[in-house]
Amino acid sequence: MRVQLKWTHQFQFAGFYAAIDQCYYAKRGLKVELREGNPEIRPTNEVVSRRADFGINTTDLIVHRALGKPIVILAPIFQHSSQVVAVSGKSDIYEPCNLEGKSLMLSGDGEASILAMFRSQEITDIRIVPHSWDIMDLVNGKVDAMSVYLTGEVYTLRRLKLPFRILRPENYGIDFYGDVLFTSEALATEDADLVNRFLTATLEGWQYALKNKEAMMDLIIEKYGYHDSLERLRYESDMISTLMGEGIVRPGHSSTSRWQHIIDTYDSLGMLSRPVDIKQILFQRSPKLSHTQRTAIFLLLTALLALFLFFVLSRFFTATLWREMEHKVGRQNELDTFIKFCLLTNTELPQTVHRRVIDNLQIIDNIIPVAESVTQKNSHHENRKNIEHIDLCSYLHDLVSLTDRNFNEEESRTIVNVPRFPVIVPIELAVPIGLITVELHTNALKHTSAKEGKIRITLKQEENEICTLSVGDRGAGMDEKLFHHKRTKTTGLPLIQLLTKQIGGSLEVSSRNGTSITLRFPLRKQKEKTIGIRS
Q1: DSSP state, 280?
Q2: pTM of the predicted model as reported, rounded to 2 decimal places
Q3: Do the beta carbons of residue 262 and residue 59 sit within 8 Å?
Q4: For a FRET experiment, which of 192, 211, 285, 374 has its CA 20 to 30 Å from that of 228?
């Protein structure tokens, strides 16, 4: 593969040197020859005539395409153009309009961005002088302005400590790409795979060159006959890193919308002889996948399909379990019998009340015969006659103590505030209240730390035989919307909601300064049963 460079060997083409030296081309079956440029060589003509397979030029390629030259853009190497206009620091030229009626030295090719800058400023009276490529013509006043490269002539002006000013097109709305890699339309059509391999290897070479600048400078001096100073080469490498957007974008980054903007800019300034179709001028990369890559993609797609099926099935079984949970929890008689048995046998209370009933539905299904046998063993219990009614205040203290113990709390983090007088309720009401309390208390212990303060459980009696039970903490808080969803990812909230509905109560949640959940419930569960309060 023959590559026509824009100029002589320098860091401007380091990516090609690296791709050769690191065998990036060879690994893809390519042998590359680099051809130096000079003022007499036009890279576009070399590629179109097939004297070269690839070339480097500026965004002037768009103008060339409009003129009917069959070229295809592969990738921009520089994200910004290095072409600027230099004027003497002793002159009265500070902006493009000051060049009206003055002389400007241009090469006649590859400098469309500079012409676009003048046209955008509506400057037409400029005398164009053929480029001599001698910076002293500007210094000696032979011309008023000269097109130069930030990577080259600007260094010379600084080294000579000559006063100068720079007019950059991008400061006037003309921000074009700089060096652009391109090929002929014929080669891109005949062998797109070869073009893609060359492009990939070249961009890999640029990645290596930017990471190993010192090694590349040694290579350019030793192998490619660079005769200028190492200081200038180092200046050029640093300037090129800026122009390529190192650390911001990867080498070869190309934006279709930016290309379209450049085409539109050329068109609006009357620089295109006919419209240019962006789809025809940009090379569409379609890498050929290896067997290993195809296998990896197949395995990835298979894994994604398996995950999708797992998700669908899990949703189905979750819905089924939800319906079963509602059915199980709705079996009030068996639930009441189960909790009565636990209250009769204090040794079973920590293991049964503390656990979520939903996770032990099989125990509920089989608890009745077990309860009968245990009741026979505990027939001597002294307070068995009073098991139908309990003191809710004492009951809450016991539940809190058991929950703390199950969490291995050395020092209780829970403060229980209850009325000074007993609140006597039937077991049918105490059971769901106890389960709700344990669930809320457990959640508070799980989601708060000792540093976040105490957990408060408060029982209050209001008028009209209404009670409120609040569980509050100083944790991170929770999403209040969870209480309004019919489906949640947890089993605790559905259980609380079902039990609240069962006793004719209501729930309120607040997430200000932690989480506070308040249960309001009537002391009369059924009309025929009277629940009194002893004072």
Answers
A1: H
A2: 0.54
A3: yes
A4: 211
